[in-house]
Structure of Alpha-1,2-mannosidase family protein:
Amino acid sequence: MRVKGGTDDQRKVFYTGLYHALIHPNLVNDVNGEYPLMERSGEAGVTEGDRYTVFSLWDTYRNVHQLLTLVYPERQVEMVRSMIGIYDEWGWMPKWELYGRETFTMEGDPAIPVITDTWLKGLRGFDIDKAYGAFLKSATTPGEQNPLRPDIDPYVERGYIPLGFYSKDLAGDASVSHALEYYVADHALSLLAADLGRPEDAALFRA
């Protein structure tokens, strides 16, 4: 990428920021294609393309992946394929994956806006139907069986997560931020459903 205009210092700031934005996600596969399978200690898979890791999606769904869709779309598509690969191996989309482990850091269901944005920008080359099925799973599975949305039950029943759901003394309560993240994910899911010709799902997740 080359930019014109500005001062030398401004261009240094730009390229430094771009460098930092491209540090993660990063490749995890070896030169022979082997990589650690998701949540399987000591087991390796083999990828035909690139396999990425360090999906700190709560952070990157807001900026990094949008940047990648615009300036490095082929890498973004490989990252989406990696996320779908994680779903194939683990049964859930990543939230904050780190070298084959889900850390469950931060909140929300951030794979949904990342992949929806990629699809709606016209990028292809990945299984959107499989991704959509994964999204429906995390957006509808009851809380006791749902590692991505453990507080989904009151969210579905009330449209929000009540104060004190996590702690009776309210220490570290994150009910508001959890609900806000689910609103973002469900709005993105409604947009994707509409684009895929599923109007009933679009209406459900837009409500």
Q: What stands out?
A: The radius of gyration is 18 Å. The chain has a mean pLDDT of 96.
